[in-house]
């Protein structure tokens, strides 16, 4: 799905989190929103997911105005920073949650839900953990379960907030490839937020460098490296 | 382990055996003197003239009416405060608005205001001499010196228990799980039932148990609004005081023993539940 961000602005009280920003995300791309904390990247992601509403501007999905759509109507697979798995539910119940929450008319039968959950567990290469609770999983396993839970609702796009933030360096590298593989297998337009320039450069097709609520530069990793548009970008990717 | 050994090391946070023993001794002594002994005394006094006399005094019409009234009040007040408490905790932990700090102070007000003053406020508001109270009496629905007044006083006094128990838990758990449920397509009510409520259920249970214990034991505010009408508006604590003032010590202490037993059952229920669901409690508190 093609995502178009048209002059989106957002402020919290008197502080501006986003000055009007515009961005076009081509269908099927894996995009990194890269910037230091306070740059507005998470706010932009939450606006795409419908968890936050902009003060002005529009969001377009495949050319249609989606600005007023509720979080439920957007059908965005959202992976939260610390995964936000439901701690009182097993892995199976976590992944099945979105399907079970559907109105009766569109809810798949129990056997079909079980089949889909198993397929997702196979996709994240953790076929045997359905009966465990989140507290019994490692950080890397939690991240993959969160990804499976987001994919279960057959989302139109994938939004990930610092998906590797809570992991140690070795697992981080492993899961980067895992995310790339899942993105390539599903073909979903995916946007992830990160403050790690190496992660953004290595993983994304398109990197959006942000600072102080503004977009500094948009480009392919190699282009940004070769021709940083501003002094901020040059300093930030050198770090 | 020899204390005198030159090679025995102590953890920096540890104390010497002597200090430890003294501290434990002080705690046990204090607890025994202030909590244990009075508890034993209540039952001992109640049974001074044997089981028969104690049971006979409880079979009295007024005593039975007091027990019934107290249980009725708890049965009405506790569910009301569960709803109010959840609503208040939800509002305070999930939204930012002007006057939030003031609202939190307001929730604590029943803890700081004397129950007698609270009771007087209710009499002033709803008494037969007030505008509202006069009208309600004329409609045949008196508040003061009747069940509604006692419930009102009890709800006021016990309001903070559940909200206070829920607010820190809900702050600690944050919004993320609820937001995750929303992005998965669940509606607000569904999120509340399947994510919010299961996550707060233990805190809610503790709040309910504390609230219940206080609702059954409240004296000051109820004494003012109830009018202490024997057999009608006299709750257990009030009946106990009246019996004691009339030197009917066996009857007073028998009823006191029943009230104590109700509280002990509440505590027992809490302990049993904690034991049985220890793993679940742990799972919802660590992540």
UniProtKB/TrEMBL annotation, chain A:
GO MF: ABC-type sulfate transporter activity; ATP binding; ATP hydrolysis activity
Ranges for domain ABC transporter: 3-237
GO-annotated biological processes: quaternary ammonium group transport
InterPro entries the UniProt entry points to: AAA+_ATPase, ABC_SmlMolc_Importer, ABC_transporter-like_ATP-bd, ABC_transporter-like_CS, P-loop_NTPase, Sulph_transpt1
Top-level taxon in the UniProt lineage: Bacteria
Keywords: ATP-binding, Nucleotide-binding, Sulfate transport, Translocase, Transport
Pfam families assigned: ABC_tran
Alphabetical list of SMART domains matching this protein: AAA (SM00382)
Family matches, as SUPFAM superfamilies: P-loop containing nucleoside triphosphate hydrolases
PROSITE patterns the UniProt entry points to: ABC_TRANSPORTER_1, ABC_TRANSPORTER_2
UniProt GO cellular component terms: ATP-binding cassette (ABC) transporter complex
Protein name, entry field: Sulfate transport system ATP-binding protein
Organism, as annotated: Gemmobacter caeni
